[in-house]
Design a protein that fits this description.
The complex is a heterodimer of chains A (122) and B (290). Chain A is mainly alpha-helical and 122 residues long. Chain A has one domain. Chain A has helices spanning 2-13, 17-32, 38-61, 69-84, 86-89, 94-108. Classes of the chains: A mainly alpha (122), B mainly alpha (290).
Chain lengths: 122, 290
């Protein structure tokens, strides 16, 4: 569980992009093998969702050049995978869910988001 | 978006979406957001039957109440109209699922510091529609004892009033309804409608009443003046009918009483002059009353 807490913390607060990417990769691995980490991830699920909301604000409120598009895309993929995971989502409190949904809906309304990037890969 | 939420607590989804709608309904920086939230709620309302059993009704009712009191009901936007429609669908499904036990869950709204002007009324209307036999306790009108259902009847009339095709017929139904239920106030039932609609209903109702008075006066005079003999009997019946009956709207009643009084005198004079006789009362048909 300590590792999960560390990954969440790095993802949320680290200014080092490499650390944030490593955290995302580790969280992805945990979600892939969720049964194995069920108790630990449920214990930290609300912190994870809160971190995702925080990073969404971080990505979209800063100037575009501050965040590499690949990181943003990978992050959104992890958000999607997390939301599909019933073991995590079934224990999420209303406030954490509120913050995440507000961020997702707000960002969905950004015009031409899908055309972002050199090859329209947004 | 909803696929992202499908594994969450269902009550939390509704609470989050209604709370977001309440917060952003007039937000100038997020003009499109209310529309998107409404879309999510609309999609959810389409699969309500599957979700309803999992909902914590108390929590949903209180967020609905908070949402409803955030709306200016005199000046609703299209998003408000849509939101209210979703609320009604949701309340309908909850009442269908919980039946009368929803009233226990509703207590949480009753205890809220801001008075509820909508939810309880809607719940009662739906309860009356779903189970008229059991709904007697929720009735508030005169005719509840006689087994009719004014709440349901007025809900139907209000629906008809909203359509231009049925508006005029609904006005006459509304007139009859108010005459039958003199203690019920029209304002209670039309308070959710737009100001324009309210004004239109009031003015049409007034015109209908006036036309009815004129027509009644004219009809009684012309029919009785050419009438068949048992006129006094008919007038007596009319008098009794009016005193007991549904015609309690003042202008109509006054006009009728005046007409009857003058017709009575005319009939009396005709009888005395031998121009009219009073035959077998059994032969009198109600249709003579016009």
């Amino acid at each position: 569980m300590d590792d999960i807490v560390k990954y969440i913390s790095n993802l949320k607060y680290s200014s080092d992009l490499n650390k944030r990417v490593e955290s995302l990769i580790a969280l992805n691995d945990i979600i892939q093998a969720i049964q194995k980490y069920e108790k630990a991830i449920q214990h930290t699920a609300n912190d994870l969702i809160s971190a995702l909301s925080h990073v969404l604000i971080d990505i979209f409120e800063r100037p575009r050049q501050d965040t590499p598009l690949r990181f943003a895309k990978y992050f959104v993929t992890i958000v999607n995978k997390t939301c599909q995971c019933s073991i995590i989502m079934s224990v999420i409190r209303e406030q954490e869910l509120y913050d995440l949904v507000e961020q997702l809906l707000t960002r969905l309304l950004i015009d031409n988001l899908n055309k972002l990037g050199d090859e329209n890969e947004g | 978006m909803l696929r992202c939420l499908e594994n969450c607590n269902k009550t939390a989804i509704f609470c989050v979406l209604f709370n977001l709608l309440r917060r952003h309904k007039e937000s100038p920086s997020q003009v499109k957001l209310p529309g998107l939230i409404i879309k999510c709620l609309l999609k959810l309302s389409k699969i309500l039957e599957k979700l309803i059993a999992e909902l914590n009704i108390e929590n949903v009712l209180i967020v609905i109440h908070l949402y409803l009191i955030s709306i200016n009901h005199e000046k609703k936007t299209s998003n408000d109209e849509m939101g209210i429609r979703i609320v009604k669908t949701l309340v309908h499904e909850m009442v269908k699922e919980k039946k009368r036990s929803i009233l226990d869950a509703y207590k949480v709204v009753g205890r809220h510091e801001v008075e509820d002007k909508h939810l309880h009324r809607w719940i009662n209307i739906i309860l009356n529609t779903l189970d008229p036999q059991e709904a007697g306790g929720t009735m508030t009108s005169d005719s509840s004892a006689s087994g009719s259902h004014p709440e349901r009847e007025i809900a139907q009339i209000i629906t008809e009033l909203k359509s231009t095709d049925t508006f005029q017929t609904a006005i006459s139904k509304l007139h009859n309804f108010l005459a039958k239920n003199p203690r019920l106030s029209l304002e209670t039932y039309i308070r959710d409608l737009s100001q324009h609609m309210k004004d239109m209903i009031r003015s049409n109702l007034e015109s209908y009443r006036n036309s009815l008075c004129k027509y009644t006066h004219f009809t009684l005079k012309t029919r009785f003046s050419r009438s068949v003999p048992p006129i006094q009997l008919i007038l007596a019946q009319l008098r009794t009918a009016i005193s007991q009956s549904t015609l309690r709207t003042d202008p109509v009643r006054r006009e009728l009483s005046r007409t009857i009084a003058s017709s009575w005198e005319w009939a009396q004079r005709s009888l005395e002059a031998g121009q009219a006789t009073c035959p077998n009362p059994q032969a009198i048909s109600p249709r003579w009353l016009g």
